[in-house]
């Protein structure tokens, strides 16, 4: 069902064990980014499937590790999807978006110029500004204020990656998403498009902690579960990444779902909470280790 991967990605899986070869190079920074743990997640995917769907695309870390031959990545957040569509359709333009802003940012007072780019984005949300902001903001936490929806994350203290290094990242990502197309879609519409034998990986915002982040898709958990149940009834494989445990495993996040919807449950250790690090001003957070729950309909 799943065709062979591109020739330059032939080493993606270990031929003997089938384990995924981790791809750690991020294109954009994003809260909830699963790229460092994607190889663990992918071990629970079916070995064969038709088309791959990722309706809460975010930073695309799982897709980049999987490098599917046919895929649809989607989200309702228009500026984010502009970035992915540009990567797929005109990667040189994506490099220029970043280089132009980085050069202007470095040529003056970095704080003032960061705030100017952020103000331009807030006045007219767009992918080009968001691309630079997510790589330069504090902790990569693209946060929006509840009262007015404006991005509020301050400038980070870290060095901002140079254009030539970002261009190298783009070149590494292009073949990994060559089989994908990207659309601005509601997650339920994306789920509804999947056919028998297809695979859908859902990574929605955490119910317990991410209500103000990155223009997150608004969703009701009950509605998501209904969409997953409908997909399962059509023979679609669905993997749901959702809250598991926090406080170093001492707090179990209760997530309501139909008893017969999922066949298996696994836990993935995703390390210390990026959001808590932002909220607690960079503390070491030994007590904020998080494990995600991976629920499978198959």
From TrEMBL:
What sections of the protein cross the membrane? none
Concerning InterPro entries, the annotation shows:
Ade_MeTrfase_dom_2 (IPR023095), DNA_methylase_N6_adenine_CS (IPR002052), M_m6A_EcoRV (IPR012263), MeTrfase_D12 (IPR012327), SAM-dependent_MTases_sf (IPR029063)
Q: Which residues form the signal peptide?
A: none
Is this entry keyworded Cell membrane? no
What Enzyme Commission number does this protein have? 2.1.1.72
User: What is the name of the protein in this document?
Assistant: site-specific DNA-methyltransferase (adenine-specific)
Q: Keyword set for this entry? A: Methyltransferase, S-adenosyl-L-methionine, Transferase
* Binding-site list for S-adenosyl-L-methionine: 30, 34, 75, 203
